[in-house]
Specification:
single chain; alpha+beta; FAD/NAD(P)-binding domain; 2 domains; three-stranded antiparallel β-sheet; 2 helices; elongated
């Protein structure tokens, strides 16, 4: 796992709790991930480690800090069926619109949002 902050620590703890071996480094620095058809080596501070997979965790921004004027409900941005928000010309899709947090939902909503944004622009 490559990352920092509380979320990365919690995720690393979870993975260890289910029996995974997790590499932890105390220093910040540059990491290199390499491999052929999959990531199989993580190099940090001149030391290479064989790995089965790599999780990259980065700090996130709360959806409430994205755009002034958005409406929120149950931790997500409120959108209509066209993925339009309360701010004209702003569309949202995926995890920022709330649960379920699933790839299939994000892809579908992203498609609708893109088509809706194009339609909105054509009307301007």
């Amino acid at each position: 796992m490559v990352g920092g902050g509380e979320e990365a620590r919690q995720d690393a703890d979870f993975l260890e709790g289910i029996g995974c071996k997790v590499l932890r480094f105390e220093k910040n620095g540059k990491y290199e991930i390499s491999g052929g058809m999959k990531a199989d080596t993580l190099t940090f501070a001149g030391e290479s480690h064989k790995v089965d997979c790599v999780f990259i965790i980065k700090d996130t921004v709360s959806v409430t800090q994205l755009v002034p004027g958005l409406t929120y409900e149950n931790g997500g941005i409120v959108v209509d069926r066209h993925m339009a928000t309360a701010v004209p010309g702003v569309f949202a899709a995926g995890d920022c619109t709330g649960k379920p947090l699933q790839l299939a939902k994000a892809v579908g909503e992203g498609n609708v949002a893109a088509l809706s944004a194009c339609d909105w622009l054509d009307r301007k």
